[in-house]
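Write out this protein's structure.
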Amino acid sequence: MDLNQLNTGIIACRKCPRLVEWREQVAEVRRRAYRDQEYWGKPVPGFGDPRARILVVGLAPGAHGSNRTGRAFTGDGSGKFLYPSLYRAGLASQPDATSRDDGLMLTDVYISAVARCAPPANKPTPGELDNCQPYLESELRILQPRVIVVLGRIAFERVLQIYAARKSGFGFGHAVSYRLPHSSPADGPWLLASYHPSLQNTQTGKLTKAMFDAIWARAKALAEVP
């Protein structure tokens, strides 16, 4: 399976009845500001460089962000903080992300999530995360990234679960990094944690531009990206 085949399967997924109902309801009713736009209303596939050495793992699509545009972190407040930072790091071709056809390209970065459908209150259930986990596992097998940047505690814990490292003593914190287990300790990818670029974090100053820019500098160094 390659990324195109995987993404085709992700887009067609209907494993979680609650999420299917919610994402489609949001796409039908729409927010007044986007009333004239056609919502994506389906699971959101991964996006980025198929040869990426850095895999970014977020939480879930926003109801009126990715669930509207069909591309990760596109059309919402989190994306307005993420993509300018990637651009400053030389990992994105432009700082703005507005739609799937806006010309944005990523270099050495692929963006994924632990949940592919917009969940009510932005809170997927453990069972819904379990249903989505095989998609992330497939991306990890295909990409074999050198660094996994997790945005937020839920993504952090889910990646630890995939690597059977939940009892490792690894603790979540901004800018902490760990070597994940593999067949040989030196072969596992790096896990680099960051606070999520949600409006709640960025507008309160919990996550600043300087803090976020430092994440990508560290990710590039760990992945040996020039």
